[in-house]
Specification:
Helices cover about 50% and strands about 0% of the residues. It has 5 helices and no strands. Helix 2 crosses helix 3.
Length: about 100
Amino acid sequence: MASLVDLAFVKQALRVDHSDDDDVLASYLDAATGGVLRYLKGAADPEWTVDTVPASVRIAIIMAVQSLYEPDQAEMLSGLGTGDPRNPIVAMLYSMRDPTLA
């Protein structure tokens, strides 16, 4: 799966200014991207690139990485499983998802 968010951008967003956790963050980025794309199902465009992915998808991926990287943010990730639109990650993606593909 091609990355939709650059690791450098994730680090900037999370205010990580060292490279000690780059491997961990890269793994979290892969997992977060997969989770977001699975949530979107058919609404995810397989042609998206780091330059064309919608901002809401980019931010949702970063929020999912944050929930994996920062233990006090772990509850954010649970929203992808429940689809609860009050969850901040789901809220970023909810309007894009095709409900007929649930």
